[in-house]
């Protein structure tokens, strides 16, 4: 029995509590000015990394550099995300999770976890999200989640062990 199993047996003899994402964290979607094709929204002086679905790897990290950068003029129309923020893809390749390694701006196809309603380790939280989506993919027809609404996402049940674990 490893250390975590021993702590779980000792502190949670009846198992851990489960809570919905809506009870655990505050999150929102990213944003980007429209239309996407407007060239002035990209690059230029003082541009910053702009995270889209393709920039979220399968290793719970962002790619080293984003495919696009967001221009200074477009930054006020997007959502700034500081380093060490948990994000998850909600469109395209649904369910990719990352803890951001650098400050960036985030597209509307991703959820950004801005704050937590309970004490929780963000590495644990990111891992639990990753595992939850993996479980949901196994249930989905063809192993692919085609879409997910914010309301469905808020209802995801995740395990919450005591902070001492």
TrEMBL record:
<dbReference type="InterPro" id="IPR000055">
    <property type="entry name" value="Restrct_endonuc_typeI_TRD"/>
</dbReference>
<keyword id="KW-0238">DNA-binding</keyword>
<dbReference type="InterPro" id="IPR044946">
    <property type="entry name" value="Restrct_endonuc_typeI_TRD_sf"/>
</dbReference>
<comment type="similarity">
    <text>Belongs to the type-I restriction system S methylase family.</text>
</comment>
<keyword id="KW-0680">Restriction system</keyword>
<dbReference type="InterPro" id="IPR051212">
    <property type="entry name" value="Type-I_RE_S_subunit"/>
</dbReference>
<dbReference type="GO" id="GO:0009307">
    <property type="term" value="P:DNA restriction-modification system"/>
</dbReference>
<feature type="domain" description="Type I restriction modification DNA specificity">
    <location>
        <begin position="13"/>
        <end position="163"/>
    </location>
</feature>
<protein>
    <recommendedName>
        <fullName>Type I restriction modification DNA specificity domain-containing protein</fullName>
    </recommendedName>
</protein>
<dbReference type="Pfam" id="PF01420">
    <property type="entry name" value="Methylase_S"/>
</dbReference>
<dbReference type="GO" id="GO:0003677">
    <property type="term" value="F:DNA binding"/>
</dbReference>
């Amino acid at each position: 029995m490893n250390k975590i199993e021993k702590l779980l047996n000792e502190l949670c003899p009846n198992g851990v509590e489960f809570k919905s994402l809506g009870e655990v964290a505050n999150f929102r979607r990213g944003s980007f000015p429209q239309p996407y094709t407007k060239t002035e929204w990209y690059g230029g002086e003082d541009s910053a990394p702009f995270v889209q679905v393709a920039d979220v790897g399968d290793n719970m990290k962002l790619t080293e550099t984003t495919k696009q950068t967001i221009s200074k003029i477009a930054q006020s129309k997007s959502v700034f995300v500081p380093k060490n923020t948990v994000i998850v893809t909600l469109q395209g390749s649904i369910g990719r999770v990352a803890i951001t390694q650098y400050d960036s701006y985030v597209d509307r196809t991703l959820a950004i976890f801005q704050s937590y309603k309970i004490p929780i380790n963000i590495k644990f939280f990111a891992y639990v999200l990753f595992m939850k989506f993996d479980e949901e993919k196994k249930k989905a027809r063809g192993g692919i989640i085609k879409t997910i609404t914010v309301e469905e996402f808020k209802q995801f049940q995740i395990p919450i062990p005591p902070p001492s674990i």
